[in-house]
Amino acid sequence: SADDFFNHERLEILGDSYLKFITTADYFFRNPNMKEGAMSLMRAINVSNSHLSRTSKLKGLTLYQFNTPFKLKQWLPPGFTCIRNNANLVANNMLTDGSKQRDSESFKQVMSVKNISDTVEGLVGVYSLASGPVDAARLLPWIGLDIDPNVLIEKDKSVNFEIPTTDEDIQLSSCILRNTDYQFNNFYWLRIAFTHSSVASENYQRLEYLGDATLEYLLIEFVYCRKPYFGPGKISHFKSVMTRNQTFSLIAIAFQFYTHIRCHSKLKLDIMDSIQNFKEILLDNHQDDHQPDIGHFANLAYQLYTSNRYQKLPKVCADVFEAFIAAIYLDCGKKLRTVWKVVYKMVQRIL
After folding, report:
1. What's the pTM value of the predicted model, to 2 decimals?
2. What is the CATH superfamily name and number for domain 1-68+109-153?
3. Tens of pLDDT, residues 11-37
4. Among 57, 63, 249, 325, which is 20 to 30 Å from 306 by CA?
């Protein structure tokens, strides 16, 4: 609204995704027994527009916002000032009471709650770019957010819990290694990531909550840095397409995650039937004689998906993909570069 050549809109999208990621990680590690719904509610309150606006005003950040167009009549060159006595004389003798009031109001800015919160998110986005996601966390307690500044510090690889390893675990780990080049150190996280709530109380729901925020932040950071000519509208469109459940389901299907999901038999049959129908439609659109590889499959699937010629895909597949990304994040010791290597390998055909 300042009508300048640049603004914070691109940074605001990046800062918003970073805040979502770090608050999610903070609640995940701080409350190991808290359910996904409760964590989502706490996150929504902590990063809400009203809360960010309130903390910004308490820190005086609104004094530095440029929210109105520059007016030459309100500007003094550096080193110049209006002599106080002369200014008072002119104001008292030449101006009416109404003019005095209008003149005073011309130096005020009217800012909405969302405008102030967007500025805070833009500031957070700047810090995440300049200092990295780990060091940028130190800014948040100063702003007034109840977040552990050390929550994203990288650690050694996750140690193996004392759990019996099954043939199913080994088979799944081999499949992951073959398709993503990532070797799990801790089968516990991998097993949980593929376990549905219909068969066990310890399931992928918390991991899904963490993986969703991790994926969104990594994808938004990628498009922000790699596509500097993308305006805020294009970045928002990219976000809506790449982070929707249907897109994540496509990726999970392309990498055959659905064959390893541990869930109730009835749900398993429904998933397999839905995916089989989708694959038949997909292969009907595949003109080559040979079967498509995983990357080609994902590309074909996305083309078919955008044409809206098939039924809705199972959300379970998207949930498992998000939980799988969170499992890698925990297994590798919170190393976002390692996570991004896996994510990029899986989504590069449809980026």
Report:
1. 0.84
2. Ribonuclease III domain (1.10.1520.10)
3. 999 999 999 999 999 999 999 999 999
4. 325
